[in-house]
UniProtKB/TrEMBL annotation:
<dbReference type="InterPro" id="IPR027417">
    <property type="entry name" value="P-loop_NTPase"/>
</dbReference>
<dbReference type="GO" id="GO:0005524">
    <property type="term" value="F:ATP binding"/>
</dbReference>
<keyword id="KW-0131">Cell cycle</keyword>
<dbReference type="GO" id="GO:0005737">
    <property type="term" value="C:cytoplasm"/>
</dbReference>
<dbReference type="InterPro" id="IPR005654">
    <property type="entry name" value="ATPase_AFG1-like"/>
</dbReference>
<keyword id="KW-0132">Cell division</keyword>
<keyword id="KW-0067">ATP-binding</keyword>
<dbReference type="Pfam" id="PF03969">
    <property type="entry name" value="AFG1_ATPase"/>
</dbReference>
<keyword id="KW-0547">Nucleotide-binding</keyword>
<dbReference type="GO" id="GO:0051301">
    <property type="term" value="P:cell division"/>
</dbReference>
<dbReference type="GO" id="GO:0016887">
    <property type="term" value="F:ATP hydrolysis activity"/>
</dbReference>
<protein>
    <submittedName>
        <fullName>Cell division protein ZapE</fullName>
    </submittedName>
</protein>
Length: 342
């Protein structure tokens, strides 16, 4: 294959992002820069979508400027004082507009605020250190967390402590996930060991279920596009922006050398990435790294050109039957969208 002159290799990129740069990225992705409650279009076949819009509107209007009285923390061991819910939690399937609504809330609320994925927050805590992270976020009016998932006990404890301190400082929390908060961690680790913390977190949220069809699949075929080598050459020749071309297995190896919080730097400035010789994944670690990369590609709306196995078939049946099923299905949905984008 003879790539176009503008092509690069993803595997040659070694992004480094300082903590200040990570903080600077805590805003809605470009595709949601203009998200609002007005331009979210609820599906009339699913009334829960319109109900979620109203819930977000009420939550935005009630965002306090000062800490609610009587809160010792999100995960206090005693019976909590009954107060207005400190958070809102949008639970639903893929492509029903949860991130759009979260971004709309972020735009609607004034003051100091942050928007990021769960992995971005945990990575930032790792980069800054826990106490510095608390000081950075303390007193923020809104902490918006997209794709809230607890994949291991360490993340569970870090986020439970962090959110507890932030709620006590007056912050309100808004989150989206494909998993109801009481079920976070199921099938991934000994969730029963952390059930008290997980339930305390859930009790602080106004939980809103959003039903509906994945909008990314409404008008496209249900499979990711796989190109022939000749078709890929033609597509690369027509590209005007920066494109990387790499073998799929080499990208997976390279991802193991880059922290997921820095994947955003890995793809910065690209218009598309090309993955050649795509094949089914061999282990869960590679699968989870691919999910993290796909999330960043989707946020930045960077197209995927691929040869070999269609990307919606790279997760094995065993993977899809396990505790990370919802992550893999979300990534599949996004890879279908990114490989069919014009």
């Amino acid at each position: 294959m003879n790539p176009a002159p503008t092509t690069l290799r993803l595997t040659e990129r070694q992004p480094t992002l300082a903590a200040s740069e990570l903080l600077g990225h805590l805003a809605p992705p470009p595709q949601f820069a203009h998200a609002s409650l007005q331009n979210y279009v609820p599906d009339p076949a699913h009334p829960s979508q319109a109900e979620a819009v109203e819930a977000i509107r009420r939550f935005a209007e009630g965002a306090p400027d000062a800490a609610p009285t009587g809160l010792r923390g999100l995960f206090a061991r005693r019976t909590p004082v009954v107060v207005e819910k400190a958070g809102i939690y949008l639970d639903g399937g893929f492509g029903v507009g949860k991130t759009h609504l979260l971004a709309a809330l972020w735009h609607r609320v004034g003051g100091r605020k942050y928007f990021g994925t769960f992995i971005e927050y945990t990575a930032l805590v790792g980069a800054l250190g826990y106490q510095q992270a608390v000081q950075q976020f303390r007193g923020a009016r809104l902490i918006a967390i997209d794709e809230f998932e607890l994949d291991d006990p360490g993340d569970t404890m870090v986020m439970s402590r962090l959110l507890g301190e932030l709620v006590a400082s007056g912050s309100r929390i808004a989150a989206t996930s494909n998993t109801p908060p009481h079920a976070l961690g199921e099938g991934r680790f000994a969730a029963q060991d952390f059930l008290r913390e997980i339930n305390a977190l859930a009790d602080r949220f106004d939980i809103r279920r959003i039903d509906g069809e994945d909008y990314r699949k409404r008008d496209i075929e249900g499979h990711a596009v796989a190109l022939t080598p000749e078709e890929l050459d033609a597509r690369l020749a027509a590209e005007t922006g920066q494109v990387t071309v790499d073998r799929f297995d080499e990208v997976l190896t390279h991802l193991s050398t880059v922290h997921p919080s820095r994947y955003i730097g890995l793809i910065e400035g690209l218009s598309a990435i090309a993955l050649t010789e795509v094949a089914p994944l061999r282990n869960q670690t590679d699968a989870l790294r691919l999910v993290a990369l796909v999330d960043r590609l989707y946020d930045a709306q960077i197209r995927i050109l691929a040869t070999g196995t269609p990307l919606d078939r790279v997760f094995t049946d065993d993977m899809l039957a396990g505790g990370y099923r919802k992550k893999y299905l979300r990534a599949t949905s996004r890879m279908i969208a990114l490989t069919t984008a014009s």
